[in-house]
Design brief:
Elements: H1 2-20, E1 22-23, E2 26-27, H2 32-68, H3 77-116, H4 127-135, H5 144-156, H6 161-168, H7 175-200, H8 203-232, H9 237-259, H10 264-273
Antiparallel strand pairs: 1-2
Helix pairs in contact: 1-2, 1-3, 1-4, 2-3, 2-8, 2-9, 3-4, 3-5, 5-8, 7-8, 7-9, 8-9
Amino acid sequence: GQALGIAEAAYREGLKYAHEREQFGKAIIRFPAVYEMLVKSKLKIVGARALLYFATKYVDLRDVYEEHNKDKEAVTPESRQTEKRYSKIAGVLTPLSKAWCTEIANEVCYDTIQIHGGTGFMRDFPAERLYRDARITNIYEGTTQLQFVAAIGGVLLRVLDPILAELSHLPYEGKLRRLASTVDVAHGKLLRVVEQVEKKRDKDYHDLMAGRLCQMEMIVLISYLLLQDALVDKERTTMVESFICQFMPELEMHFQVISSSDYSMIDNHENILGM
């Protein structure tokens, strides 16, 4: 939540400055290079908020059942099973949301300074402070790399697949159905590379690809969550369309890297680093 708040504050600072700062006779927000950074920042924040709220839902459900099951008179086999299920889901969503929110906070703050130019590096504006504040978020309470280590077991075991399947089969129509089909294809690619990595039975390779698999999982899940939002509020259609168009190429990159079964990093790192 802290990282998401920092990202939101940084985005607002960048947006405000881009409206106020003029160059060549017009506000710099009119320049594609500037509004592209702002749009990307907004999409990352919207995705972070959707993922974070979804994760907190399952953390709350887990906590409720944990508390309920402490009562020996109230506990049942079904409530024990439900607690275990919610615990597994929360155990995957928590590190994934921490990883996404803290990484995008750093990226948004970076772009906010870029939008400000040299003044963004100075203390005349809040941008530099927000950047310093953001930097710690993907370090303490476990670096992003450790979040992926925590999440990868659940990703490989496909803990979230029932949720993804449910989100996939919501009653989308028209453009939303076409967008959902794009995400369905992406989900299929994720399943293929998960199976591929599992079959290798190679811990070093598992660890090396963990971040890429987690990134793919987050992109697929967030896309579905935003599609679900658009069912309730049609004005969100533009947002989810832009998110999918922005992040599906990134997912495809991770898919291609994993599909290639490239071992060059494992094979060559000692030589490159002089070990």
